[in-house]
Structure to design on (581 residues):
């Protein structure tokens, strides 16, 4: 079973605050899920790869590239159009809006 | 005559075109039934206040000469698909107040066709779950027995279609989230080929797995919706041109049955319904072929590595800085942890932590590395098998809908996905078709049969699926 410290470390890495009362349950749940998915350790790769630059790869995935240019919703290069929302709607989604600014925490502090 | 809300899309479409009914009447019939049953079923999280106005516009468009099979058809939309100007919460406290700033591509296409949106449907939070019990706003309930779950994660959509609270609905399917609730609610749940339908505007969960799919009363209706929403989209670089997917259309009448997967863990009466349905296919000239998919028993294990890995990355965007819930701690890092800790429910947090674990430096090769190797094998096995088959048939879920609160252990819940996750891992199209009912506690509960076809061969699913109806 994974330890209490491991659960707390995972929560920290995942930027999740979890309650003291939850740790034990998470230890149990995550351990039993890991035990189940651990079946994959028996898999021997047989040269099939997940991602290949060939369209004929067994997985069929290939890297999709486009020209490094702004593009229209039509997919053609050109002047970009605001396809993912108008400016005002995006500004309104800010948790704390002041004028046209998003208020965020000051992250650079003066040395004491 | 049926009540208007009980019509299929195809039936309603004909009546609208013939001028026998109006879109306003159709929408009103759905609204009346919603008012009657939604307080108990909790299938809709919100019913839009402009439904009749939308319907009126559809009638005006028809009067002006427009026509489309979906013009004036009232639909329900899963709460993780964006409709501009409306709340899209993914049934999460994280996005409870979030107003979508643009239309998902599938919504844009439906608007062009003239569909009417009734409201947004309940789901497991961020599409994580197989029962709808992970909704932050209470579970939807199964119309066939309200003490039972709808399945999930698109449970509200499936319940709304089954209870005639809409004519059809959109769901999303990452590991069975369209097919499993459709099986539990007795409706058709259709997952297209990976890339067939744009995901722009669908909230991302597992990006190599996610697809938008229709939930409908018949296969014909699923086909109408699929034909409307499919197609390559510059806003989703994984979307594919239908022409590029067409190559594999099969015209044979061979159905592959992987009986080696049915040895344990399936309810006997579900298996009997399955065998009876296969007989029905045989009676229509189909040939049943025993097949073996050697990597299939591993599918669920690799799914529960790949999906949380991708979900933990995708959900990193919810940081309380740009949109959604924002809670303050005593430092920036505490702001993140507090927002995410309180904004996400227990299952979402569990999957994020699991994903974080399998992607961490010491464990990456043992879990994620092995899983993607096994995934390639699984895909090859399906491709090879489907070269000479029209479809592969399995039950959709090993059992009918379970009782609310029955499965408290997350792993037990995951086992309901055992037959559905493969099609997401391999990218194949798959559909759940009703195959009759089984009895539990004196109630008749639906069960579904799942058909899987070759990439781009949705046509085979429609042909074989219709033979089962």
């Amino acid at each position: 079973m994974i330890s209490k410290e491991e659960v707390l470390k995972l929560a920290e890495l995942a930027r999740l605050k979890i309650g003291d009362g939850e740790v034990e349950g998470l230890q149990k749940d995550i351990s039993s899920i890991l035990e189940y998915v651990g079946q994959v350790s028996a898999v021997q790769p047989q040269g099939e790869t997940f991602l290949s630059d060939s369209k004929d790869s067994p997985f069929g995935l290939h890297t999709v590239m486009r020209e490094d240019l702004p593009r229209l919703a039509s997919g053609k290069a050109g002047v970009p159009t605001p396809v993912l929302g108008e400016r005002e709607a995006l500004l309104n989604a800010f948790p704390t809006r002041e004028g046209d600014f998003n208020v965020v925490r000051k992250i650079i502090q003066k040395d004491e | 005559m049926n009540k208007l809300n009980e019509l299929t899309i195809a039936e309603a479409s004909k009546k609208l075109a013939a001028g026998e009914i109006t879109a306003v009447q159709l929408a009103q019939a759905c609204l009346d039934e919603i008012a009657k049953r939604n307080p108990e079923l909790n299938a809709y999280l919100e019913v839009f206040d402009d439904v009749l106005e939308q319907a009126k516009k559809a009638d005006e468009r028809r009067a002006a000469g427009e026509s489309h099979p979906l013009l004036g058809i009232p639909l329900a939309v899963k709460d993780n698909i964006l409709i501009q100007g409306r709340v899209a919460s993914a049934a999460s406290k994280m996005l409870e107040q979030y107003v979508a700033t643009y239309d998902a591509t599938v919504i844009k296409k439906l608007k062009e066709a003239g569909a009417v949106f009734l409201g947004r449907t309940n789901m497991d939070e961020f599409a994580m779950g197989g029962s709808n019990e992970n909704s932050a706003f209470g579970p939807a309930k199964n119309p066939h027995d309200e003490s039972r779950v709808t399945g999930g994660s698109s449970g509200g959509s499936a319940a709304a279609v089954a209870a005639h609270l809409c004519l059809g609905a959109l769901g999303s399917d990452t590991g069975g989230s369209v097919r499993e609730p459709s099986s539990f609610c007795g409706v058709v749940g259709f997952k297209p080929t990976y890339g067939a339908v744009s995901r722009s505007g669908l909230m991302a969960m597992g990006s190599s797995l996610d697809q938008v799919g229709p939930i409908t009363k018949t296969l014909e209706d699923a086909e109408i919706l699929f034909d409307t929403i499919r197609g390559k989209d510059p806003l989703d670089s994984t979307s594919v041109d239908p022409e590029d997917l067409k190559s594999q259309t099969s015209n044979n009448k061979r159905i592959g049955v992987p009986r080696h997967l049915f040895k344990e863990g399936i309810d006997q009466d579900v298996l009997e319904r399955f065998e009876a349905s296969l007989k029905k296919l045989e009676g229509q000239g189909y040939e049943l072929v025993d097949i073996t998919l050697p990597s299939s028993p591993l599918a669920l294990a690799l799914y529960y590595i790949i999906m949380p890995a991708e979900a933990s990355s995708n959900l990193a965007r919810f940081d309380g800085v740009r949109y959604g819930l924002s809670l303050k701690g005593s430092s920036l890092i505490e702001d993140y942890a507090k927002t995410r800790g309180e904004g996400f429910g227990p299952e979402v947090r569990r999957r994020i932590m699991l994903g974080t674990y399998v992607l961490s430096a010491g464990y990456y090769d043992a879990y994620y590395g092995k899983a993607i190797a096994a995934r390639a094998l699984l895909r090859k096995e399906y491709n090879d098998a489907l070269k000479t088959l029209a479809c592969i048939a399995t039950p959709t879920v090993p059992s009918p809908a379970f009782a609310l609160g029955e499965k408290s252990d997350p792993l037990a819940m995951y086992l309901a996905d055992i037959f559905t996750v493969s099609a997401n891992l391999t990218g194949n199209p798959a559909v759940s078709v009703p195959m009759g009912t089984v009895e539990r506690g004196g109630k008749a509960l639906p069960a579904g049969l799942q058909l899987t076809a070759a990439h781009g061969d949705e046509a085979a699913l429609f042909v074989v699926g219709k033979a089962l109806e």
Q: What stands out?
A: The longest strand of chain A covers residues 97-98.
